[in-house]
Design brief:
By secondary structure, the protein is of the alpha/beta class. The chain has helices at residues 2-13, 41-60, 80-94, 105-110, 112-118, 147-160, 175-189, 209-217, 229-241, and strands at residues 27-34, 68-75, 98-100, 122-123, 140-141, 167-172, 195-201, 222-226.
């Protein structure tokens, strides 16, 4: 959270006329468009509460360069089209200086054209997908590790410490899940391995039965999950029931 504040502070101090809105008066308006009531609401609510709490703590100490920070949140219900609409509304009506903390790879990717068009600082997309990293987008400030870095460490550990040789993947059939699958294939290739089974489910559903059957048929030693909370938990429960 301190990294987010530092980046926003530096951006505010060095604001240029090309950005969506320079901080005006005594307030720096920061937008947040993410899931507050849909299938990924746990992550969205936690992000909003955490960022808002830290903004208030910073404001209590004088703010950033003498300016207060105000978080303005919009609920996109994990729907990319609503992420786009919400961000445009914040830009046009609230004159936000930056956007922070999107939830969902597809949601974050959906607003990249807007971010680039308005030269809007996009701080801490909650995704490790390659879309935010390669090629480099000057408006995007990544905080978390990439999916590739995370999966590399996970696969290295499972192979080295767990002796796993046969890997399967359970993934969400969208930009997020496909990125995790590609990263898993890359990580396995470093060990001379490849996926023995794949199973996917559709975004916003918990339909895991078909995916589980495909994965069981591959007799994996380890399964990588590229899933959000509810379908991931449903898959784990179903897999345990199948032994």
């Amino acid at each position: 959270m301190k990294k987010i504040i530092f980046l926003i502070g530096m951006l505010a101090i060095g604001a240029t006329a090309g950005q969506a809105a320079e901080p005006a008066g005594d307030v720096i308006k920061i937008g947040m468009v993410n899931d507050q009531s849909g299938p990924n609401k746990g992550a969205g609510k936690s992000m909003r509460v955490g960022v808002d709490a830290y903004f208030k703590a910073v404001n209590a100490k004088g703010g950033v360069n003498g300016k207060k920070i105000e978080l303005i949140s919009v609920n996109d219900q994990y729907v990319p089209d609503k992420t786009v609409d919400g961000l445009l509304k914040l830009i046009e009506e609230q004159k936000i200086f930056a956007v922070v903390g999107t939830i969902g790879t597809s949601n974050g990717v959906s607003i990249l054209p807007i971010v680039k068009e308005y030269k809007l600082p996009f701080v801490a997309p909650r995704s490790g997908a390659v879309n935010f990293r390669n090629p480099v987008i000057r408006e995007v400030f990544n905080i978390r590790a990439s999916h590739q870095e995370e999966v590399d460490k996970l696969v290295d550990m499972l192979v080295r410490d767990g002796g796993a040789k046969r890997f399967a993947i359970f993934y969400q059939n969208d930009t997020f899940g496909l990125d995790v699958m590609t990263c898993t294939e890359n990580a396995l290739k470093r060990h001379g391995l490849s996926l023995t089974a794949k199973g996917s489910f559709e975004r916003t559903t918990k339909a895991v039965t078909t995916a589980l059957a495909s994965i069981i048929a591959g007799k994996p030693d380890a399964i990588i999950l590229g899933a959000i909370y509810a379908p991931g938990a449903e898959f784990a429960k179903a897999a345990r029931q199948e032994g």
